[in-house]
Write a structure and sequence with these properties.
Strand order of the largest sheet: 3-2-1-4-5-6
Strand content: 15-25%
Largest sheet: 6 strands, parallel
Length: about 325
């Protein structure tokens, strides 16, 4: 958490007269959008206006959250996004640890004169004016709740804040399944429910949103899932042609990588997907126990993240990337 002195200084910055912007990472997920909107509603409850700016669009299954459709999408509204960042007095940086993680907004953030406040749970954060970094906490949304507590504003948590923070914690913990989910996490979830978060409604709006095309894609990858390294590593993939054939939409492959971990004996799952428009392979890694996919991704695939959840990228072909992965994973002592 921020030091008491930092909290006092931050409090002096959170005034109605200041222009405040909230940024999150490229390809925003539930934790990114939930933490951004949760913070926005908290500031609103304090009588402070803030704008949420995201680098690119996010999945439809996250657009039910209150005021989600008011977020400024940088790839669609570049001038508005640039002006907001350039003219901001305070910029909150949520769920990312480096300007490089926010796409086209990164250079604007670096050059902005605003005070920059980082709240994030990824490893190896870069320098910001104020840094609240904790890699043990499972979701940035939980960190936003701790921040509200540290500011002495628990009583300001309302239904809108509760719904947004609950969503981010739920999605980033895989429905409270991941090892990082703690007793503290569950206590916060209980508090959010008491403040108006409806678990059934949130789960339905976020996860019960399958389209026929998404289920076809899921059936395709499950039908050819491969297990390597003596049955401990699952490999899944999708080609660009397959994405086009089944009418892929942003968010359709969310959570696909987790299916590999459901196989008995599997400790690591890797999902490879050709980008729909550019020539690179997006990679998602998930693992159990002490298997560190963060270090593996950093070492071989220009990525990183958490011990049990990380991402990577390959500029090689899909076929070559799969072969490289299998070669490297066989040589690792996991």
């Amino acid at each position: 958490m921020f030091t008491p002195a930092e909290l006092l200084e931050i409090n002096t910055l959170l005034i109605p007269e200041n222009k405040i912007v909230i940024l999150t990472h490229y390809n925003p997920d539930g934790d990114a959008i939930g933490s951004s909107l949760g913070l926005k509603h908290y500031l609103k409850a304090k009588g402070i206006h803030a704008e949420v700016v995201v680098p690119n669009d996010f999945p439809k299954f996250l657009k039910w959250m209150p005021e989600s459709k008011k977020a400024i999408i940088g790839e669609y509204k570049r001038k508005i996004a640039f002006d907001l960042i350039n003219e901001a007095d305070v910029i909150f940086c949520l769920d990312f640890n480096s300007p490089s993680r926010i796409g086209l907004l990164g250079d604007w953030l670096t050059k902005a004169a605003a005070k920059k406040i980082l709240i994030d749970h990824h490893q190896q954060p870069e320098q910001f004016d104020f840094v609240y970094s904790d890699t043990v906490i499972p979701a940035t949304c939980q960190m936003i709740y701790h921040f509200i507590e540290a500011m002495g504003d628990q009583d300001l948590v309302n239904k809108d804040i509760a719904e947004c923070l609950y969503t981010g914690i739920m999605t980033d913990t895989g429905g409270f399944r991941f090892r990082s989910t703690s007793a503290t996490t569950h206590r916060i979830i209980a508090n959010l429910i008491e403040k108006g978060a409806d678990p059934a409604m949130i789960t339905s709006n976020t996860w019960d949103t399958n389209t026929v095309s998404r289920l076809h894609l899921l059936a395709l990858i499950l039908g050819r899932i491969e297990v390597v390294k003596d049955g401990t590593v699952a490999v899944l993939y999708l080609t660009r042609e397959e994405l086009k054939e089944y009418g892929f939409q942003k968010g359709d492959t969310e959570g696909f990588v987790n299916y590999g971990l459901s196989i008995l004996g599997v400790k690591m799952s890797a999902f490879f997907m050709e980008d729909l428009y550019e020539d690179f392979i997006k990679i998602s890694f998930r693992s159990k126990d002490d298997m560190d996919v963060n270090q593996f991704s950093r070492k071989y695939f220009n990525g990183g993240g958490h011990i049990n959840a990380a991402g990577g990228k390959s500029n090689d072909s899909l076929l070559n990337t799969l072969e490289i992965f299998k070669e490297k994973i066989e040589g690792e002592n996991l």
